[in-house]
Design brief:
With 106 residues, this protein is an all-alpha fold. The chain contains five helices and no strands.
Amino acid sequence: WEQTVEEILQATTMSADPDVSLSSYDEDQGSKLIRKVKEAPFVPIGMAGFAAIVAYGLYKLKSRGNTKMSVHLIHVRVAAQGFVVGAMTIGMGYSMYREYWAKPKP
């Protein structure tokens, strides 16, 4: 039992070796962001569309006419969510196309 505990402790201290480098720790945040955008390009598109729709809705808040504020905000929320769901759906389709159909067969 004592020998097993010592082996476990030795193995855990060896795994904390500072010379071991993992690729996820080697890249800075900018290159990691670029890599993630290349892997899933529709995520930032969905986020940008969401922000644009919300900004436009807030801009049009004063000129909404007779529409109640709650109805206007609900319409903005539905439009923004619809854009994000659409971007996610297109992104999944693109990802499936890349993985299953555009992949060269060995």
